[in-house]
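Subject line: Sequence and fold of a protein, written as structure tokens
Enclosed: The protein record, placed directly beneath this head.
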Amino acid sequence: MPDIVKGDPGLRLLQEVSAGSRRSLVRALGWSAVQAAPALASGRILAAALDRGFLAGRPAVGICWLIGIAALYGARAAAQRAVFDPLAAIVEPIRDELVRRVVRGALRRAVYEGLPGAGPDAAGVTRLSSQVDAVRGTVSALLRTALPLAVNLLAALIGLASLDLRIAVMVAVPLLVAVAVFVPAMRTLTRRRAAYLLAEERVAAATGSVVGAARDVAALGAGREAQAEVHRAADASVRAATTVAWANALRVPVILLGGQLPVLGLLLAGPSLVRQGTLSPGAVIGAVSYVTAYLIPALQHMTGAVAGYWSQLRVLAARLAATSARPGTAGPAGGTARPSDAELTVRGLTFAYGPHSAPVLRDVTFTLPGGGHLALVGPSGVGKSTLAGLLAGIGQPDAGRIALGARAMAELPEAERAALVALVPQEAYVFPGTLRENVAYLAPDARDEALDRAAAAVGLGPLVARLGGYDTELTDPTGTLSSGERQLIALARVYASPARLVILDEATCHLDPAAEAAVEAAFARRPGTLIVVAHRLSSAARAGRVLILDAEGHAFGSHTELLATHPGYAALVGHWDAPLPAPAL
């Protein structure tokens, strides 16, 4: 892989999403070569039509040569039509993959980086609805323009050299100088386009935040301030667009140097070369036609459309690379953290949903040894799910510290945290796709043996058999699977993952007590630490430690200890109807 791709996340993203398009690119290049037939031969044919036909007093011969040019243009038209199929085979998969990555990245930010109560990501909507389609359109336009342009440019220079090598040198030198001047200027254009794209995102974000808070703005009489915020973002966008326009203006002197100057040189030197007998009149006219019909248009397209498409594509790709998930580099599906059963330490954990709200959690403190099993209990609405989310790294507490071993949870890189910690919520998510894709989502390299072990552990085996195996397509999981079956799939997914801290937030509420007991026993035997937000008393009785949250605060201990010493826990046990198993030792 070239160093420029390794060092540029945007180019690396483009390379990844277009990895399967090599064959289609070769086909498109082949049709572009056919399109270049007039650029290669038209100057030679025109010179022959003049020298051997019209100037020699044989007009019929000249017309025959010109018919040859018409045939070349016919072939070019057919190739232009044929090139659209391979281009579509390149562009559409790129768009589909980018949509998947943008959605995955938005979900990742919402789940792993978002704070409770945070608003929607309006700029994320812009990335999905505008930037991905812009990349699709830009890639399409760039391929349709750049491929034939490059082939035409090369073909025209070869055609010039076939007429006369001196003419080819006379044309090529200023052309290469112009290109050498223009290429560094592309960096400035790219930077300015990047600034313009960010300015557009800020306009979308500012507008989205104002519209989303319209009622509050009206209630507080802050319309003028809200309007000023949107105006500031819009003015910055206008200034950024102006700087892009100034950068684009550099193309004018480049075209004069690389295109118009060679034409002037040919017109000045041509008569002298013809008088000396070293060049025929047809060759002069053919050379001028090569420059005016192909090289100057190619230079105009290179400095205009192609430069604009390329800089815009690099900016868009870099932006999407910075905000989108890539398989194998971040998040739960690609985490590479080393397994660890280090103890979970919580000290002084305090959290409120707003600066003026009463804390939902206040000074929560406990230590769970590595490989331990904790049940989290308490009345409804006391903050059990909030604590589970904070322990999983979703959001940050207002005060206190959560540590896994010697490392604070907040300091763990996202990819490492997502691989070490798995939270299974009450509502299990099963996405359309195969059963294998669902169960192996957090362990994409898992073989069938590992999936079988996970399925057997949580009781998913009968469902796998009923569906016909892991390659069964789940087109409508919500309509065809029960709530309990979806929970079993989500539990098997986490069991097969590398996570070493598993948090079940009422994740077995749709299972019967026996199935719930089997699932919790399986996760308790599994290497790692288990936290269960208890749905039934039996979950608390099975756990080695229990943490109760109530209006008075919290208490930590074994089921037996809390039953004897904590009145709130004893009262809660009295409201549970499920029979109690023997307490865990």
Notes: The chain is about 65% helix and 10% strand.
